Amino acid sequence: MLKYWYKDFAQYPPGHRDYWRTRLIGHTLLLSSTFFLVLTLLNIFYFESYEYATLDASGFLLSLSILAFFNRTANVNLASWAVTLMITGLILLFVASVGGYAHSLVWATLIPPFAFFLLGRQRGSLVCLVAFAVCAYIVYGQIQEAKPVTFGMGALFNVIEVSIAHILLFRFYEGTRSSAYRQLAARNAKIQTLAETDKLTGLYNREKLDITLEEYVLLSHHRQTPFCLLILDVDYFKQINDAHGHLSGDRVLVQLADSLKSLCREGDFLARWGGEEFVILLPETQLSLCIKVAEQLRQDIAGQKFDGQSLTISLGAAQLREDDTTKTLVNRADNALYQAKHTGRNRVVAEASTPSVRAVND
Fold first, then answer.
1. This prediction's pTM
2. 276 is catalytic
3. pLDDT, tens digit, for every residue of 120-145?
4. pLDDT reported for residue 275
5. Per annotation, catalytic residue among 215, 276, 284, 351
6. Strand order in the sheet with 277-283
7. What is the C-alpha separation between 343 and 337, in angstroms, rounded?
8. Which of 99, 179, 207, 340 could pair with 349 in a Cys bridge, judged by C-beta atoms 3.0 to 4.6 Å apart?
9. In Å, how far from its chain's centre is CA 321?
10. 277 φ, ψ to 5°?
């Protein structure tokens, strides 16, 4: 039965700007049909008020007619207007019929939530302005009459019924808000991931590397803790592309990235710098240990196959100094890599201007 009320429209999938309008239309028509049916029965059997029973029965039939129209046409704009005008018209007709007495005016508080959600800010404002102008006119008429007021069960039922309607309505609104927030959070997380991830390898990209490197340098300066940087480059990578094609070269880079990710220590930061070059940030690490880590990486990579091919890497290492910026640190590591590439490749070279200079060969 609920599948009939909450029909899924292919043109309004979750995430579509009109999706929640379609849900509210179904939600409203289900509630209004139920309410008007209950009110019809109450007015017939409890209050014996056949005039109001006829009004409520009209609302019940009108709700079913709008639902049938909406399910057939999927016209969310016309259905939104139909639901808003039905709710507004029936409420005002009821309030006017009882002269605004018996707390009937409380029904008018249901108009803004429907009008604004279904019609938007401008049209909703117009509908509410007209509706509350009518209510004000009715209250003005009460003032002119100045007759004593008594309250009976009708007033109590009006308050209870409207309170239930508000609870259900705003429960629905909270559901839409929570759902929209979750979708937005998931979308933002996806965008953030795409913005900082290298498309080919799945590692962090250059933009993320630059931000993280800046943070690590500032933190290491502040805490006066050691920090090292490794730049590694695939040896003779152009020959792989030339001999086996760029698709094979891409597979090699992907497999190498996966291998480096598994070999890096916990807490190290790995990113693709560009092309066949990768960078590893090693927080709280002295240069001597950095060289050992780099040498272990070199040996492990040399012992593996990547897309069926043997591979070697050259690495340049540098440790942060007191007067370093990110630029000077990267420059020294890059110079060390240059030395490794031009002194035989497949080796680790540390920054040449420190006492702990080392070159590790096969």
1. 0.61
2. yes
3. 999 999 999 999 999 999 999 988 88
4. 92
5. 276
6. 269-274, 277-283, 227-234, 313-319, 348-350, 359-360
7. 10
8. 340
9. 41
10. -105, 140
